[in-house]
Amino acid sequence: MKARPFLAVVLAVAIVLASLGFGGWWIVLRQSPLKLQNQLLAVPMAARFVPRLTPLSLYWLTDPEQPVVYGRAVAPTARRHQAAATVARLRDGAFAAAGIDYQAELASWLGPETSLALINGGSSEAPQGWLLALRSRHGDGARRFLQRFWQVRSLAGTDVQVSTYRGMGLISGRGALVGSTPMPLATALINDDLVLIASGQGVLQQALDVSQIDGLNQATTASFQAGVKRLAQGSALLTARPEAMAPWLGLPKDLIDQAGVKDLLATLRPERGTLVADVVVGLDEGNLPWRPLPDTSRTAALLAALHGQKSSLALLQNPAGWPAPWQPLLQAILAETSSPDSTSAEPTSPEPTTPSPIPALVALADAGPLLWSEAAEGWQIGTGLNQPAPEALDGALPGQGLITAPLAVEGGPPLQVWTRLKSPASVREPLQASLEGARSAEGTIAWWGQTLAVLQQQRDLRQGPQQRQNQLTELAMPKAPLQWAMAGPKAQGLIQGWGTWRLLSGLAGQPLAASVDGLTVGLEPETNGLHFKARLSFA
Q1: What is the pTM assigned to this prediction?
Q2: If exposure means fewest CB atoms within 10 Å of the residue's CB, which of 99, 304, 478, 513 is most exposed?
């Protein structure tokens, strides 16, 4: 009988210890910077002041100090200080571009929500304005900021005016943000914890107007709410309309117009050393996306049969069936192939001066799946044995100036090659031919290569591009018509040409591409639009 009290005491102690352990773990998890990886999306408070049809809006949904701490936590030990400093410079540069000194004016009070929106002004004199929203993490931080904000600018000669609009106190004047020329400014304090700064009194009044009418602001728009629910997680939220996609996001205007893109909603979230972007693109009803039926078994067979290390690897479903507006994107991917290195090219096959037309011709004739890869030896394509058959290219060859011929290879199966004749510079020089592509058969798979070396590598090696395949697995879009994985140098070369990336590098005050270790992208049709995902990994 004495055992029962003893067991009861042991059980009680165990429950208390377990509770303390769980409570400690819960506190550590809530305070850990790693919580950014699983941050749930919610409709931002500032979205109620942003008009529904605003061209561009960006919501940063975490404390500005958290990304710095996160960068230090996930970086290798030797690079922690460098990673934290880079993120801090990017943050400070972003606020400096808005004319605000983060360390001096914001660091002591700014909370977990910062928003910026470009707003249509509604008049020819002010065709577009901007609205900046800053949310305080404690009671009087926002109010003190506004007092200092206008005190500094009043001392600099700004004519400050105080007025009332919709029961809210407005402070306005023609002054200057730090480091900028004088411009109209207007501010308001909402519920003592949200500061609104606008490029003029008219823009601020418009923001206050839409906040009072459901359906006229982003927060109460059904499509915005559905998008937030659909994307679920993220530390930043971006919305864009067609008029802002080309100048601010660097998207091709022709593609936006032809594909009928009407809006875009994107989130950003960190995942260890990777930045993940989830994007939902809305399309007009007359431009609903295509739905190719992926052949997952054939796709797996192509991946399993691919040999050699690759700097780039893409899987394409039914490339011949891509809609016309998206064909330029497909051709741009295939045009990313580079000429083979001079050290690996055959002496008898001079380096081509223009991209080979073979990849585009194969893609236009292939119902998929198609595997495209790139290595130092050149590009390589994998397709079904007769999908397409070589004869399917014959009709387009004369127009490209190509000649097809068989080629016997010692120790290997016969090849089919395509060459381009070049006229000699003088009658004394012999006629020259450049190799534009070659094809070999391996069981039920046809391999198309830029050089003989890349096809020989396919025959001789046994190990596949494991890193690129791992990137595709982590993308988690096995049925997407486009899956594309790139190594660091390839990814760096691609993003350096993106205007938005150059803008970020300018804000950080240093080149950012050198730290990129890889990029993976996927594009998949949905019911009313497209789902795009990108994973940018850092060294």
Answers
A1: 0.84
A2: 304
